[in-house]
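Q: Predict the assembly, please.
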Amino acid sequence: MTAKLDASALIYLGKADLLSLADKVYHGLAITTSVYNEAVTGGQSAGHRDAARIARAVRDGSIQVVSLALAAQNLLNRATFPSALGPGEQETIVEAAAQQCLAVLDDVRARTAAVVMGIEFCRTETLLLEAMVAGLISLSEFEASLLRLAQVRNMKASELAELLRLGRLISEGLQHDRTST
Amino acid sequence: MTVQALNLGRLNIEAETLETLNLLAQWQSTSRAQVIQRLLRDGARQARIEYAAGLYGRGDLTLEKAALMASVNIYDMMAYTHAHSILPPGDMAELRTDVASMLVRRKQYELAAQVLQIEPTSG
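A: Predicted assembly structure:
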């Protein structure tokens, strides 16, 4: 399942050096041209180093840039998104809907729109939990990755504490499953 | 940069501000009009960023839309909200639901139920 990333998720994953882990979790990452223009073209012209890092990931093929297909374009024209969303988020949601794949969305308003459109989505922090569930990282690696992400995203302490608690709960549950089978 | 004339008529300015403007013009070896022009430009830009970031902090806009509204790139808006600890409102129940949805997608049904049933942390 390829995941479509919006600009915030893409940049935060890049800043925390977690793009290759995200690629392994979803077997492919894609962004729309609007997200590319915002995160790469706009970022590079303003001299942001993170934009250059994402540009490299696009060049080496770990992130695919997709233009909206006709079905997604039609969906975008028909959908009435709230004005709180940017063009990159709108494109990411309709592209995920048209391709029936997952969207990685870090903004609550974007996630609400995704619920209305009936698409599957995750956040960057739940992506890390998913990597642990998929057996790609250990609990300690999850915790280290989450701390990196929390630092770049300026995550609330209460959210970080809850995610660390959920990580331990899930890790124990997975271990219990493995020992009982 | 395109420049347009703005006639402010008889704009009243406090004596202290006027003194500061005169001092700045003197220190920077420039005219008072140029000092006012620069301060207005920087202040208007800053006010626009502050306003859009405030809407993001209230959860009224996404970060991308806030950057668009402030006419800055998303990296600059990220840096601004980070520096000023501006965070949109979080919802623990929504977070647990999103974690449970991921677990259901991964066919971890019992774990998903556990996540939804645990007592919320205080704070």
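Chain A has a mean pLDDT of 94. Strands of chain A lie at 3-5, 29-32, 63-66, 102-104, 121-122.
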